[in-house]
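Running this now, will post back.
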Amino acid sequence: MVEGGGPVGVLFLCTGNSARSILAECLLRELGQGRFATYSAGSQPKPAPHPMALRLLAERGHATEGLRSKSWGEFAAAGAPSLDCVITVCDAAAGESCPIWPGHPTTAHWGLPDPAAVEGPESALREAFERAYEQLEERIRAFLALPLADLEGAELLERLRAIGTRGNP
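Update: finished.
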């Protein structure tokens, strides 16, 4: 999958790049133990990551310094990091016309409900973020178990898409 033996470049996309994609970026960065160059972005990024996402990540031991909501245009421009996989984590971003990614990475959809859209008491918001974190962690662990060096093309695409159905309600 990756030429030259460098880290696998993975971009997680969501519309606002404030919750699910930020959670996924941090999870893969930590669980991947340096084997991945992880990024997140959005088609219409919010001004900043959601405070509950940052709080949950910090409580679970993830570094949150430097996390910011970014436009996906940063990753389609000249000089952008090399990407091997682009994974959408929200249904809205999956339905949008994405940029043409340099290098034509494998793309897959791992849709999850938006925890930031939950209304009600803070406990309900917290529960929604925890559920999204746990579902993403399960999917990322499945991704890490793939023999990425041996997978290409249709087989890689099929395996990535299958992961996207894990933990769906």
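Residues 7-154 form a domain with the Rossmann fold fold (CATH 3.40.50.2300). More later if anyone needs it.
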